[in-house]
Amino acid sequence: MSTILRPYLYLAGGIALVLVLNLLVGGIGSYDQRIVVNIGINMILAVSLNLVNGFTGQFSLGHAGFMSVGAYASAAFTTMVLPAASDPMSQGLYLIVALLVGGLAAAVAGLLVGVPSLRLKGDYLAIVTLGFGEIIRVILQNVSSLGGALGLANIPRHTTFLWVFIILVFVVFVIERVIRTTYGKGFLAVRDDEIAAEAMGVNTTRYKVVAFVVGAFFAGIAGGLYAHYNSLIKPDDFGFLKSVEIVVMVILGGMGSTYGVIFAAAALTYLPEWLRSFTMFGIKFSDFRMSIYSLVLIVLMLVRPQGLFGGFSFKGRRAAAKKAPIG
Amino acid sequence: MLSVQNLHVSYGAIAALKGISFNVPAGTVVTLIGANGAGKTTTLRTISGLVKASSGNVMFQDTDITNRPSHEIVKRGLCQSPEGRMIFPGLTVRENLMMGAYLRNDRKGIEQDMEYGFSIFPRLKERMKQAGGTLSGGEQQMLAIARALMSKPKLLLLDEPSLGIAPLLVKLIFEKITEINRDLGMTILLVEQNAHMALNVASYAYVLETGEITLEGPAKDLASNEEVQKAYLGM
Ligand SMILES: Nc1ncnc2c1ncn2[C@@H]1O[C@H](COP(=O)(O)OP(=O)(O)OP(=O)(O)O)[C@@H](O)[C@H]1O
Ligand SMILES: [Mg+2]
What is the DSSP code string of A210-241? Predict the structure, then answer.
């Protein structure tokens, strides 16, 4: 009984924690609040990409593309379809509906990209998803009804700290739950050894598509939250560098370690803010941030290929697997 | 139970199987022996639906399963322990075994079969919660065989269970193969380079050379065949 209840206790605990933090967040300045909300959105992005790149072992480089599909679809829905919301109650309700629209749109995009390209291996998938992200960006730049390159403005600010983190708790709950079931182990089997998984009767293509579509769905929701927080979205918000940033969070956090990835998302969102005024040779940190990321990644791959936290999850199995004797 | 007819498989321009035919009658152990690159793994992978045949048929229990998706073939009762073991390094021993039972829902039967696996390979039980990747080569081979058994197959395909493990363990594993065949009445198709061991446990054997079957007969006859002795038994 207790083992059946435990995950729900975690869920309740997570929600309680968010509620308490929500009271505290009310007391901090709006600049800091903005950072905290961005951290939450990035956590959702990283945790959902982790399902694809970490648990299922595919290399997707187009997460920002799915985020943008969700952001634009939900924002368009709110501004063009839904009536104006005045009270917090209907604001919340409209946000949920808009997020679902954004999530579903992104999931459909995930299906369209995933079905043909998940037959491709490794690098090819990375290239196709990268291409997808760029194509979406260029399309958005040219659709004038969505604001073109200037972006879509005047999106009502329905997103709050509470919504972002409650949704984060649910996303983490869903992924962590699924991954612990026998069905969920199929994702890990695909990552560990695709041919063996296939030989055991696992439909590996289906798993990859499911991971991809679910990952895209959550990225779309994150995009919707982003849109309804910033009020203005531009195609360039969701460029290639945003995808790279999310991938770095997943790798740094240790592919397949949800909590490591959450921590990495927080760190990589906060650090640039913290170092904002930091300059080196007269160059602002935000301008050479990506070079630092690359450097950190290279060092990490050499010193700790399982990621900073990979190895804590699953009772140290992944770290142990790395030390496995050959033959 | 299994009947392969005139099977052709190519990887691009390379013809790996050039029309092979063989039979595996129910309840028997049949072996396919051959040197490196003869096409043994290709044969098993094609039977399992992991590689597509360009022509020919694979009949399993009177059903044509040629080029069917592998999950459908496993469901029909045909499962393999792949070459090089291919266990899931990040999953525990228990989870590896559960993946073998991936297409089954009968909880009781699954537990029973896991117990059977543990009874023939007690070492796996001791290491139940350990990551598959931390097992020794021999233990991984045991796990791969036990995992294939977890699908409750009617026909078990074994791809070079002797590969890369110590002679003493090879002996143990081949004893277990005989035991599985006897205990469960399991039909087994064994693919091996180690002709000595394979001919010992099998009742019938085929010799595969560069994609063609060049010789066949009862395993005992082949073991005393001069050509086989020279080419495969190092005599
Ligand atoms: N994926 C592949 N792509 C191209 N050629 C392949 C592929 N797999 C196998 N081959 C070729 O097909 C032939 C048969 O290979 P196969 O692996 O079936 O041999 P084998 O009998 O299992 O050998 P071994 O004893 O070394 O495992 C070889 O010439 C090999 O080079
Ligand atoms: Mg082989």
Answer: HHHHHHHHHHHHHHHHHHHHHS-B-GGGGSHH
Number of domains within chain B: 1
Q: Give the minimum alpha-carbon distance from B221 to chain A in angstroms, rounded to a whole number.
A: 33
If residue A3 lies in a helix (H) or strand (E), which one and from where to where? Answer: helix A2-25
The CATH number assigned to the domain holding B171 equals: 3.40.50.300
- Which residues 153-172 of chain B have a CB within 8 Å of chain A? 164-165
pLDDT tens sequence across A226-264:
999 999 999 999 999 899 999 989 988 887 789 899 999
* Record: contact A192-B91, CB cut-off 8 A: yes
Does the pTM of the predicted model rise above 0.80? yes
Domain range for B35: 2-83+151-232
Identity of the residue in B88, B98, B131 whose CB atom sits nearest the CB atom of A193: B88
- pLDDT tens digits for A82-105? 888 778 888 899 999 999 999 999
Distance CA A250, CA A246 (A): 6
- Hey, where are the domains in chain A? 2-239
End-to-end Cα distance, chain B: 34
Chain-centroid distance of CA A207 in Å reads 18
| Domain-embedded: residue B99 | no
- Whether residues A199 and B79 touch (CB distance < 8 A) is answered with yes
